[in-house]
Input
Amino acid sequence: MEKTKKSKAKRIDFTTTDMVAILKIHEKLHMDVVILQEEYMKCQQSLFHEKWKFRHVARTLKQIAKKLGRPDLAVSEEELDKQIARKEN
Output
């Protein structure tokens, strides 16, 4: 039988000062991630509210357009694309 050589992982010896520095860096990076997550959640919430406001305005415009007898006056981009596609076919 052949002897297989086991690869020995080198152990890195850190001093106490090195470990304290590493832990400080880790804590700083962790806090940065937490702050980024909080800001991301604020942006998501803000975007949700802006979308809600837009949907409300769009529905109101559609109701006004219907009352004026011109339902084509207020259409979304998707609805306009569908109307154009129907006219082309």
Observations:
- The chain has a mean pLDDT of 89.
- Residues 16-67 form the longest helix (52 residues).
